[in-house]
Structures are given as structure tokens and as C-alpha cells.
Amino acid sequence: MELVRLINQSVSFISSLVLRCAAELQISDHIKQYGGPMPLHELARSIPIPPEKDLMLVQLMELLVHQGVYAKCEAGYQLTPTSELLLTEGSNMGTFVSFIPEVFFGKRFFTGKWFKDTDVGTVSELAYNGKQIWHVFKEKPELGNFFNEAMASQCKESVRDLVASHPDIFYGINNLVDVGGGTGTTVKVIADTFPGLRCTVFDLPNVVENAPNSDSFSVVGGDMFDNIPTADAILLKTILHDWPDEDCVRILERCKEAVESTEKNGKVIVVDMVLDAEVNDSKETETKLLFNLLLISTVGGKERTKKEWHDLIIRAGYSDYKIYPARMSLYSVIELYP
Ligand SMILES: C[S@@+](CC[C@H](N)C(=O)[O-])C[C@H]1O[C@@H](n2cnc3c(N)ncnc32)[C@H](O)[C@@H]1O
User: Residue with the nearest Cα to atom 27 of ligand 1?
Assistant: First the structure.
């Protein structure tokens, strides 16, 4: 059993690549369009792939069926709730699953050498001559756009969870700024769910210039370390996990200034993982631990425990806070009061 476990873990990167492949081939869309269990040859011709590769597609689908991504009956392959997340017309998480292996594999990710060296920075800095990933995204717009699309693609699902499971956190707010909100996917869902709530997406100028024109929200470019537009509520969704503690304190101080300067007694809404929060299933714990290592090694951030959140919030000068349990997704909501 130990041998199987060890070998399994050493080849498990294949899972990530195979998922990317399924997303790139839009297998979920093809099965959905077929309208019922889809035989292999129909799937192969519909994608299409050359007949010489049919056998490889069988093997790929075998693994994905075993892992529960797709289901299989005598008549062919079917979608599961997991593969439905890859539907282009639905959650469209394909860009996210493609981005992760594309950008992080082969970048000296978690090597023994990286661990032993004392002065090498994060893996991204190593791979990009000491530059922070956000600067790399600016210099390489293709990569930056890929990242923004990947964020938007994973965002839809988690923000739907957020508004469905915690609608009350948006009640009584007149305006909200989504700091680090990318190209506006989150604020669009929030604005459409709570008409009357004025929403703004705030991110680096090179990011917001790609936000679509929308009647639902406005767009402001800037640097969250300098100045954040004032609002009744500031949303920080999966932002603080990108940064070490010192930087988080600075960001939280800017947010506090922004909500304190309105008439309302404003608040900051953090949506991020809490490592030791109650989990709904064991995959959640493993996913949080994997993400934690991804962030530590790539951008120099981390996921945090309740105690680490407490210390950060108090250091940034907030008087109180409340952690809501994550109900449907990996993310908890933490409300911070100035
Ligand atoms: C992990 S993404 C989160 C995106 C989005 N909030 C979500 O939930 O999908 C981090 C975001 O922070 C933005 N960002 C990084 N540095 C920033 C800065 N100094 N000022 C404003 N935004 C910044 C990035 O451009 C990116 O959109």
C-alpha cells in the first residue's frame, strides 16, 4: 500500500495535465451538445481528433471517469457536476484549470535546490529574473490576460456561492469597491444580484483597461498600496492570500481609511481561505494545503489560520471582526469593522 501511495503521488501531476487537456478539447461542451451518453467515436469525431489518437482519448477518459470528473454508462460518456463546471456556457472554469499547469510547471517549482537556497525569492521571481508576478503580467500582456481570464473563470462559481450563502453581508450597503477585482466578474454578479448597490472594480490600470464596458459597475485603476476609492464596503476577494503579512497590514490600513471616510460605519469584507475552518469534506482540507504551498512558493503569500487572521486584523488597527463559516465553497467570509 505504501508503494502504491508513493507511486501514485509521484505521477499525480498527470491529473492536472489531463484536466487541462479535457478543458482545451472542450469535452464537456461536446458531451452536452450531443444530448445524451456520448460514445467514444462520436466524441473523437466531434472534437475532432485524428482516428490514430482515439485510443489515447479512451485512456484519458478512463482516468477522468475513475476520478469522477466524467461518468460512463454502456452507451457512452456523461457529464458529472464536476465536468459541468467546465461548460463554456456555464461556470466556464476551463481557463483556470489550463492556467495552473501552463504557468507553474517547469518553473523550478518546489525543487530541493529552491528550498535550500536562502536568497532566491519566490518561484515566479526565479523564473522571471527577480520580478514580481504582477510586473511580469504587465510586461507580458498575453500572460497577464491569460491570468485575468483564469481568475474570472474560477471567480464566477465562488462569487455565486458567496451571494447565495451570505446575502445578508450586502444588505444596507449603498456602494462597494472590489479591490483587486480583476476585470469585474465578481462585481457584475454582485451588482446584478443586488440592484441599487453601486459597485466599482478597482485594480491595476493595465488590468482594468481590459474590463468590459458595463452599466452595472464602474472601473477605477490604481495601486491598492497607495490609495483605495472610498466606499461603505470594500471587498477583498482572494487578495490577501497573495501577500506576506507586512503587505497585508498595509492593504488593510488603506481599506480602513477608505471605509472610515464615508458617513456610514463601513466595513471590509475579506473572502479567503481559513486553514483551520470547519470543512465540508476531506478534499477541502487537501485543496487548502495545496493552495497554501502554491501561494507560498509562487507569489510569497499564504493561506492563513484563524489565529493568523486575528493577528493581521488587529495589527491593521481594526476594532472587531467576524468570521462566517464557509458554507458551500473553500472560502470563508471575514467582516472587519474599523
Ligand atoms: C488572485 S487575483 C484575485 C482576483 C479576484 N479578486 C478574484 O477573486 O478572482 C489578485 C488581483 O490583485 C490585483 N493586484 C495585484 N497587485 C495590485 C495592486 N498593487 N493594486 C491593485 N490590485 C492589485 C491583480 O491584478 C489581480 O487582479
Answer: 182
Give strand pairing partners of 236: 270
- Strands (E) in 115-266, as ranges, are 175-179, 198-203, 217-221, 233-237
Could you tell me which residues come within 8 angstroms of residue 107 by beta carbon, excluding any fewer than 6 positions away? 123, 124, 126, 127
What separation in Å is there between the alpha carbon of 220 and the centre of ligand 1? 13
Would you call 244 helix, strand, or coil by DSSP? coil
The neighbour count for residue 1, using CB atoms within 10 Å, is 5
Kindly tell me the sign of the dihedral angle through the C-alpha atoms of 305, 310, 311, 313: positive
CATH fold for domain 94-337:
Rossmann fold (3.40.50)
Q: Is 233 in the pocket of ligand 1 (CB under 6 A)?
A: no
Q: Is the CB of 234 under 6 A from ligand 1?
A: no
Catalytic, 241? Answer: yes
* CATH class of residue range 2-84: mainly alpha
Domain map (residue ranges) of the chain: 2-84, 94-337
pLDDT tens digit sequence for 207-258: 999 999 888 899 999 999 999 999 999 999 999 999 999 999 999 999 999 9
Predicted confidence at residue 219, as pLDDT, reads: 97
Q: How far is the CA of 327 from the centre of ligand 1 (A)?
A: 24
On the question of a common fold for 2-84 and 94-337, the answer reads no
pLDDT tens per residue, range 30-61 = 999 999 999 999 999 999 999 999 999 999 99
Distance in Å, CA 139 to ligand 1 centroid = 16
Judge if the beta carbon of residue 223 lies within 6 A of ligand 1. yes
Ligand 1 touching residue 94 (CB < 6 A): no
